[in-house]
Amino acid sequence: MLPTKGSPNVHPTNGNYPGSAESGRARAFKTYVEPELEVLFRVARTLTGSSVDAEDLVQETLIRAFRSLDTFDGQHPRAWLLTILRNTNINMHRRRRPDLVEDIGSVRGARPAFGATRQTSPEESVLDDILSEDLEAAVNSLQDRFRTVLLLVDVDRLTYAEAADALGVPVGTIMSRLSRARARVRGHLRSSATSPGRTS
Amino acid sequence: MITSLRRMVTCHWSARRIGRYLDQDPSAPLAPEEVRRLEEHLAVCEKCTRVTHEQRALSRALATWSQKRLVDEAALARMHEVLDRITAEGDR
Q: What does the alpha-carbon distance between residue A45 and residue A58 come to, in Å, rounded to a whole number?
C-alpha cells in the first residue's frame, strides 16, 4: 500500500507504522524512494555532468533523506527528495558544468526521431532538419543556468515545479530560463541550418 | 500601421506563452482565455506559427536525448542496493 495522505498504516511523522516502529520507518522510506530512484539519478547526472558523480550524489542524498524522514509529511516525495538532492549537491561542492558529451556521444551520428515517423509539412521550419551534432553544440553553447533548466525539463522530463525544487529557484525563474534557453537553441540551430556549405 | 502594431504586440504576448502552451505543465497552465487568444493568433501569424513548429521540433529532438540517456541498469541496481542497505541498517 502506498503511503499517501491519510494512510493510517504508514506515516513517518506520527510514528504510526505497522509492526515495529523502526521496520515501519524503513519500509515507509523505501516506499517513498524506490519509485524516484531513476529520476534522482537523471537529475543528479544533469547537475553533476557525470554518471559517476551522480551515483555518489544520489547515495549521499538517500542517506540524508533517511535521516530526515521524520520531518517529511508524506506528501510529494519527489519534491522532498529533489530538495535534499539539491542541498546535498551544494554541500558536496560538486556543481560542475553539465557535460553532455559523456551521454550524448552514444547517439552521435544518429538522426533525431522527428520527421522519421511523420510527413513534414512545407511550412514547417528548417529546424526539422536538425542534426544531433548541431543540437549538441547549440545546447552546449548555453550558459550553465539556462542549459541546466533545459536539460531538466526537456530531457529529464521534470515539471516546472520539480525543476524549481531541484534548483531551489521559483517556478517563474524556471519558465523564464527555459524560454530563453529554447529561444537561444532555436536561434543557434537556425543559423547552423542556413550556414553556407552545410551538408546534412 | 495600427494593425501591424497590434499584431506586433500580440506576437510579443504570444511568444511569452508558446512554451507553456506546448508544455501543458501542471505548474503553469494557461487560462482558457489565453489559450483561445493564442490559438487565434497562431491561425493568422506566420512568424509565431513558425516559432511554434520550431519549438515542437526542438522538443522532439531533445526527447530523443531522453531516450538515449537512459539510466545505466547497473548504476540503477547499485542505487537499489544502497537503498536496501540504508533501510536494512535502519531496521536494526
A: 9
Contact B60 A178 (CB under 8 A): no
Q: Rounded CA gap, A172 and A36, in Å?
A: 24
So what's the pLDDT on residue B10? Answer: 82
pLDDT at A103: 46
Residue A109: pLDDT above 60? Answer: no
Q: Single out the residue of A65, A101, A99 nearest to residue A80, CA to CA.
A: A65
Would you give the DSSP letter of residue A39? H
Tell me the chain A residues in contact with residue B90 when contact means C-beta distances shorter than 8 Å. Answer: 22, 25-26, 29, 66
The DSSP string of chain B is -HHHHHHHHHHHHHHTTHHHHHH--TTSPPPHHHHHHHHHHHHH-HHHHHHHHHHHHHHHHHHHHHHHTPPPHHHHHHHHHHHHHHHHHHH-
User: Quick one: pLDDT at residue A123?
Assistant: 43
pLDDT at A116 over 50: no
A-chain CB neighbours of B68 within 8 Å are 103-104, 106-107, 110
Q: Does B23 touch chain A (CB under 8 A)?
A: yes
* ipTM score for this prediction: 0.84
Give the A window 73-102 contacts with B, CB below 8 Å: none
Q: What pLDDT digit, counting tens, does each position of A27-45 carry?
A: 889 999 999 999 999 999 9
